[in-house]
Amino acid sequence: MVQPPQKTRLADFFKSEYGRLVGYVRHKIDNVAAQDAEDVVQEVAANLFQKADISAPIENVSAYVFQSLRNEIVDYFRKRKENLSLDQSLPQYQDIKLIDILRDRRNEDLSEIDKQENAEELYRYLSKLTEDERALIIAVELEGYTFKQLAEKWGIPINTLLSRKSRAMSKLLRLTQSQSA
Questions:
Q1: What is the arithmetic mean of pLDDT over 10-24?
Q2: How far apart are the first and last CA of the chain?
Q3: Domain limits of the chain?
Q4: What residue spans of 29-154 are helical by DSSP H?
Q5: CATH architecture of structural domain 5-79
Q6: pLDDT tens-digit profile of 110-136?
Q7: Fewer CB near the last or first residue (10 Å), C or N of the chain?
């Protein structure tokens, strides 16, 4: 099967300029991992190859691709969300961190009432998560499983588990922030 001329031009451009495109993305997005920059370039390439059979010819492939990259970078910044760190203090408690509640380490020094309140708060937050997210947080943070162990045990790819945990932690962040507001 013969590729349309648009796709051939795009393919040739991406082959010859791939390193330069990845470098451009890394330059535009501070602190981005090399893999993330490649993901952005590959996302743009995939989108352009799907749309390359448009009726209007692309006059300047380089300008077209770089404009598409700029648009994807803008989307990257729009999608990027603040991740909740387990070492971050909870907004309503300056000296208590989420990891402390999850692992119940600091509760040794707290009164029995404070222990009960913290446990209730933790379970209230966890109950707002989906069943899959809750199971993952409990398995990783409380039971000490690694993502590799869980991937093998549950038959779910590691990247799916990582994404699921990221979503769960983002939800927990929103919940803790809404409680302090």
A1: 84
A2: 60
A3: 5-79, 98-180
A4: 34-51, 61-79, 98-103, 112-127, 131-137, 147-154
A5: Orthogonal Bundle (1.10)
A6: 566 566 676 677 778 888 888 888 888
A7: N
